[in-house]
Amino acid sequence: MIQRFEPGARYCTAVSYAGLLWVSGMVGWENQHGPVEAQVEEVLGRLDRALELAGTDRSRLLWVQVWLADIGHFDRMNAVWERWIPPAAKPARATVGAQLAAPGLAVEIAAVAALGMPVPLSGLAETR
Predict the structure, then answer these.
(1) pTM > 0.85
(2) Which domains does the chain carry?
(3) What is the pLDDT of residues 60-75, one digit of tens each?
(4) What is the 3-state secondary structure (H, E, C) of 53-65?
């Protein structure tokens, strides 16, 4: 069964099907024109909320796509990301430079996660 979360005029915040959750690209509207770190923190908070709506969490992320308005902010984005993502639950990820939807937006993030019970992070093996 397909389940749609927070349907809007053009898209849903997230859609689940077959044990997976696809989360739409999210931006930091509240920190638009602010530093990239503040926008990344806002977007990751929004991502946490979307995952919670579907009954999952960041430990079950499978794939993340990050778009940066300025690829020169890669290290600054990663500093926030590394504090947020559990070390034993790192997803596949791609990051690219791109023109975003509005001036002042620094980052957009979309994701795919597994549904089901969150994984106890203490039981995961660290991989490199």
Answers:
(1) yes
(2) 16-117 (3.30.1330.40)
(3) 999 999 999 999 999 9
(4) HCCCCHHHEEEEE
